[in-house]
Amino acid sequence: MACNASTDSCVELKTVIVGDSDVGKTSLCLRFCHGKVTPVNPTIGASFLQKRVEMQEGCDDGPRTTTQVVLQLWDTAGQERFRSMSPMYFRNAKAALIVFDASKEYSVQKLSRWRQDLLAYADQGVVIALVGNKCDVRTDDGPSLAAAQEFAESVGAPFYETSAYTGVGVEDAFMGVAEGALRLHRTATAEQAAAAQAERLRLDAERAKRNASCC
Ligand SMILES: Nc1nc2c(ncn2[C@@H]2O[C@H](COP(=O)(O)OP(=O)(O)OP(=O)(O)O)[C@@H](O)[C@H]2O)c(=O)[nH]1
Ligand SMILES: [Mg+2]
Protein backbone atom coordinates (compact mmCIF):
# COMPACT_ATOMS: atom_id res chain seq x y z
CA MET A 1 0.00 0.00 0.00
CA ALA A 2 3.04 2.29 -0.04
CA CYS A 3 2.94 5.31 -2.34
CA ASN A 4 3.60 4.54 -5.99
CA ALA A 5 6.90 6.28 -6.89
CA SER A 6 5.44 7.52 -10.20
CA THR A 7 2.58 9.35 -8.44
CA ASP A 8 3.84 12.67 -7.16
CA SER A 9 0.56 13.45 -5.40
CA CYS A 10 0.88 10.61 -2.90
CA VAL A 11 2.19 11.34 0.59
CA GLU A 12 3.05 8.93 3.40
CA LEU A 13 2.38 10.21 6.91
CA LYS A 14 3.71 8.32 9.90
CA THR A 15 1.21 8.61 12.76
CA VAL A 16 1.72 7.26 16.28
CA ILE A 17 -1.05 6.41 18.72
CA VAL A 18 0.10 6.72 22.32
CA GLY A 19 -1.39 6.67 25.80
CA ASP A 20 -1.72 4.45 28.85
CA SER A 21 -2.69 0.81 28.62
CA ASP A 22 -6.37 -0.12 28.20
CA VAL A 23 -7.52 3.30 26.97
CA GLY A 24 -8.54 1.85 23.59
CA LYS A 25 -5.70 2.72 21.20
CA THR A 26 -5.81 -0.59 19.33
CA SER A 27 -9.61 -0.52 19.21
CA LEU A 28 -9.54 3.01 17.72
CA CYS A 29 -7.08 1.90 15.02
CA LEU A 30 -9.24 -1.12 14.18
CA ARG A 31 -12.37 1.05 13.99
CA PHE A 32 -10.62 3.57 11.72
CA CYS A 33 -8.96 1.01 9.42
CA HIS A 34 -11.53 -1.82 9.33
CA GLY A 35 -14.75 -0.08 10.40
CA LYS A 36 -15.27 -2.48 13.31
CA VAL A 37 -13.81 -3.46 16.67
CA THR A 38 -12.82 -7.00 17.56
CA PRO A 39 -11.60 -8.31 20.95
CA VAL A 40 -7.91 -7.54 21.36
CA ASN A 41 -5.11 -8.39 23.77
CA PRO A 42 -2.83 -5.71 25.24
CA THR A 43 -0.35 -4.64 22.58
CA ILE A 44 3.22 -5.93 22.84
CA GLY A 45 5.69 -3.28 21.67
CA ALA A 46 3.61 -1.86 18.81
CA SER A 47 1.55 -2.96 15.87
CA PHE A 48 1.41 -1.45 12.43
CA LEU A 49 -1.60 -0.70 10.22
CA GLN A 50 -1.99 1.39 7.09
CA LYS A 51 -4.91 3.21 5.56
CA ARG A 52 -5.04 5.04 2.25
CA VAL A 53 -7.22 8.14 2.26
CA GLU A 54 -7.95 10.96 -0.17
CA MET A 55 -7.56 14.56 0.93
CA GLN A 56 -8.53 17.78 -0.78
CA GLU A 57 -5.89 20.52 -0.96
CA GLY A 58 -6.08 24.13 -2.08
CA CYS A 59 -8.13 27.12 -0.98
CA ASP A 60 -11.90 27.38 -1.13
CA ASP A 61 -11.93 29.96 -3.94
CA GLY A 62 -8.98 28.51 -5.89
CA PRO A 63 -8.29 25.24 -7.67
CA ARG A 64 -8.46 22.14 -5.47
CA THR A 65 -6.49 18.97 -5.96
CA THR A 66 -6.95 15.50 -4.55
CA THR A 67 -3.98 13.99 -2.75
CA GLN A 68 -3.60 10.32 -1.93
CA VAL A 69 -2.32 9.97 1.62
CA VAL A 70 -1.12 6.72 3.12
CA LEU A 71 -1.50 6.91 6.88
CA GLN A 72 1.07 4.64 8.46
CA LEU A 73 -0.33 3.97 11.91
CA TRP A 74 1.95 2.82 14.72
CA ASP A 75 -0.30 1.60 17.53
CA THR A 76 2.05 1.56 20.52
CA ALA A 77 1.80 -0.42 23.76
CA GLY A 78 0.67 1.56 26.78
CA GLN A 79 2.11 -0.73 29.42
CA GLU A 80 4.90 0.93 31.40
CA ARG A 81 7.33 -1.92 30.66
CA PHE A 82 7.34 -0.90 26.98
CA ARG A 83 7.91 2.79 27.64
CA SER A 84 11.64 2.63 26.91
CA MET A 85 10.81 1.52 23.35
CA SER A 86 8.80 4.70 22.64
CA PRO A 87 11.61 6.75 21.03
CA MET A 88 12.06 4.04 18.40
CA TYR A 89 8.41 4.22 17.36
CA PHE A 90 8.10 8.01 17.65
CA ARG A 91 11.01 8.75 15.31
CA ASN A 92 9.93 10.69 12.17
CA ALA A 93 6.25 10.68 13.21
CA LYS A 94 4.42 13.57 11.57
CA ALA A 95 1.19 13.14 13.53
CA ALA A 96 0.20 11.70 16.90
CA LEU A 97 -2.89 10.92 18.92
CA ILE A 98 -2.57 10.96 22.71
CA VAL A 99 -5.45 8.78 23.90
CA PHE A 100 -6.95 8.61 27.39
CA ASP A 101 -10.00 6.88 28.86
CA ALA A 102 -12.66 9.59 29.19
CA SER A 103 -14.90 7.35 31.31
CA LYS A 104 -12.40 7.17 34.19
CA GLU A 105 -10.39 9.59 36.29
CA TYR A 106 -7.36 10.62 34.25
CA SER A 107 -4.18 12.55 34.94
CA VAL A 108 -3.36 15.69 32.95
CA GLN A 109 0.22 15.27 34.13
CA LYS A 110 0.38 11.92 32.35
CA LEU A 111 -1.05 13.45 29.17
CA SER A 112 1.61 16.12 29.42
CA ARG A 113 4.30 13.47 29.85
CA TRP A 114 3.19 11.69 26.65
CA ARG A 115 3.34 15.03 24.86
CA GLN A 116 6.85 15.77 26.16
CA ASP A 117 8.04 12.37 24.88
CA LEU A 118 6.52 13.06 21.48
CA LEU A 119 8.15 16.49 21.28
CA ALA A 120 11.48 14.95 22.23
CA TYR A 121 11.50 12.06 19.77
CA ALA A 122 8.96 12.62 16.96
CA ASP A 123 9.44 14.81 13.89
CA GLN A 124 10.01 18.48 14.62
CA GLY A 125 6.57 20.10 14.32
CA VAL A 126 4.67 16.85 14.89
CA VAL A 127 0.90 17.52 14.90
CA ILE A 128 -0.55 16.23 18.17
CA ALA A 129 -4.22 15.73 19.08
CA LEU A 130 -5.74 14.74 22.41
CA VAL A 131 -8.37 12.02 22.30
CA GLY A 132 -10.80 11.16 25.10
CA ASN A 133 -12.01 7.66 24.17
CA LYS A 134 -14.87 5.47 25.51
CA CYS A 135 -17.36 8.34 25.42
CA ASP A 136 -20.08 5.70 24.99
CA VAL A 137 -19.74 4.77 28.68
CA ARG A 138 -19.36 8.29 30.05
CA THR A 139 -21.98 9.21 32.61
CA ASP A 140 -23.07 12.62 33.89
CA ASP A 141 -21.49 11.97 37.27
CA GLY A 142 -18.23 10.74 35.64
CA PRO A 143 -15.01 12.76 35.47
CA SER A 144 -15.19 16.17 33.81
CA LEU A 145 -13.31 16.59 30.56
CA ALA A 146 -12.69 20.26 31.28
CA ALA A 147 -9.13 19.71 32.57
CA ALA A 148 -8.13 17.71 29.48
CA GLN A 149 -9.76 20.28 27.18
CA GLU A 150 -8.01 23.14 28.96
CA PHE A 151 -4.69 21.33 28.67
CA ALA A 152 -5.27 20.71 24.94
CA GLU A 153 -6.14 24.37 24.43
CA SER A 154 -3.10 25.56 26.40
CA VAL A 155 -0.75 23.63 24.10
CA GLY A 156 -2.71 24.33 20.89
CA ALA A 157 -3.75 20.73 20.36
CA PRO A 158 -7.14 19.79 18.91
CA PHE A 159 -9.34 17.76 21.25
CA TYR A 160 -11.66 14.93 20.21
CA GLU A 161 -14.14 12.78 22.08
CA THR A 162 -14.35 9.31 20.55
CA SER A 163 -15.81 5.86 20.96
CA ALA A 164 -14.11 2.98 19.22
CA TYR A 165 -17.27 1.00 19.97
CA THR A 166 -19.79 3.29 18.27
CA GLY A 167 -17.33 5.01 15.91
CA VAL A 168 -18.23 8.51 17.15
CA GLY A 169 -15.44 11.01 16.49
CA VAL A 170 -12.95 8.40 15.24
CA GLU A 171 -12.75 9.53 11.61
CA ASP A 172 -12.56 13.19 12.74
CA ALA A 173 -9.62 12.50 15.08
CA PHE A 174 -7.47 10.56 12.59
CA MET A 175 -8.33 12.79 9.61
CA GLY A 176 -7.88 15.94 11.74
CA VAL A 177 -4.24 15.19 12.60
CA ALA A 178 -3.59 13.91 9.07
CA GLU A 179 -4.83 17.18 7.55
CA GLY A 180 -2.64 19.21 9.92
CA ALA A 181 0.38 17.05 9.14
CA LEU A 182 -0.22 17.27 5.39
CA ARG A 183 -0.35 21.08 5.60
CA LEU A 184 2.98 21.14 7.48
CA HIS A 185 4.48 18.68 5.01
CA ARG A 186 3.54 21.02 2.15
CA THR A 187 5.00 24.06 3.93
CA ALA A 188 8.27 22.21 4.66
CA THR A 189 8.51 21.00 1.06
CA ALA A 190 7.89 24.52 -0.28
CA GLU A 191 10.53 25.94 2.10
CA GLN A 192 13.05 23.31 0.99
CA ALA A 193 12.35 24.07 -2.68
CA ALA A 194 12.77 27.82 -2.04
CA ALA A 195 16.06 27.23 -0.19
CA ALA A 196 17.35 25.00 -3.02
CA GLN A 197 16.37 27.62 -5.60
CA ALA A 198 18.13 30.38 -3.61
CA GLU A 199 21.27 28.23 -3.40
CA ARG A 200 21.19 27.58 -7.18
CA LEU A 201 20.89 31.33 -7.87
CA ARG A 202 23.79 32.05 -5.48
CA LEU A 203 26.02 29.47 -7.23
CA ASP A 204 25.04 30.83 -10.68
CA ALA A 205 25.92 34.36 -9.55
CA GLU A 206 29.30 33.19 -8.19
CA ARG A 207 30.07 31.33 -11.40
CA ALA A 208 29.15 34.38 -13.50
CA LYS A 209 31.40 36.58 -11.34
CA ARG A 210 34.32 34.14 -11.67
CA ASN A 211 33.86 33.94 -15.46
CA ALA A 212 33.71 37.72 -15.73
CA SER A 213 36.91 38.26 -13.71
CA CYS A 214 39.01 35.60 -15.46
CA CYS A 215 38.72 37.08 -19.03
N1 LIG B 1 -16.80 0.98 26.21
C1 LIG B 1 -15.72 1.07 25.43
N2 LIG B 1 -14.72 0.19 25.57
C2 LIG B 1 -13.63 0.31 24.75
C3 LIG B 1 -13.54 1.32 23.78
N3 LIG B 1 -12.37 1.20 23.14
C4 LIG B 1 -11.76 0.15 23.69
N4 LIG B 1 -12.52 -0.42 24.66
C5 LIG B 1 -12.19 -1.59 25.48
O1 LIG B 1 -11.10 -1.25 26.33
C6 LIG B 1 -10.22 -2.35 26.46
C7 LIG B 1 -8.81 -1.96 26.05
O2 LIG B 1 -8.81 -1.69 24.65
P1 LIG B 1 -7.47 -1.72 23.77
O3 LIG B 1 -7.83 -1.22 22.44
O4 LIG B 1 -6.79 -3.03 23.85
O5 LIG B 1 -6.59 -0.66 24.59
P2 LIG B 1 -5.07 -0.21 24.32
O6 LIG B 1 -4.99 1.23 24.65
O7 LIG B 1 -4.66 -0.61 22.95
O8 LIG B 1 -4.22 -1.03 25.40
P3 LIG B 1 -2.65 -1.44 25.33
O9 LIG B 1 -2.44 -2.17 24.04
O10 LIG B 1 -2.41 -2.30 26.54
O11 LIG B 1 -1.85 -0.17 25.40
C8 LIG B 1 -10.82 -3.50 25.65
O12 LIG B 1 -11.61 -4.31 26.50
C9 LIG B 1 -11.70 -2.78 24.64
O13 LIG B 1 -12.77 -3.56 24.18
C10 LIG B 1 -14.64 2.25 23.66
O14 LIG B 1 -14.66 3.17 22.85
N5 LIG B 1 -15.70 2.08 24.51
MG1 LIG C 1 -3.22 -1.90 22.22
Automatic annotation (TrEMBL):
InterPro entries associated with the record: P-loop_NTPase, Rab, Small_GTP-bd, Small_GTPase
Keywords: GTP-binding, Hydrolase, Nucleotide-binding
Transmembrane segments: none
Residues spanning the signal sequence: none
Top-level lineage group: Eukaryota
Single Gene Ontology MF annotation: GTPase activity
Record has Disulfide bond as a keyword: no
This protein's record includes keyword GTP-binding: yes
CDD domains: Rab (cd00154)
Alphabetized PANTHER family for the sequence: RAS-RELATED PROTEIN RAB
Name this polypeptide is given: P-loop containing nucleoside triphosphate hydrolase protein
Species name: Tribonema minus
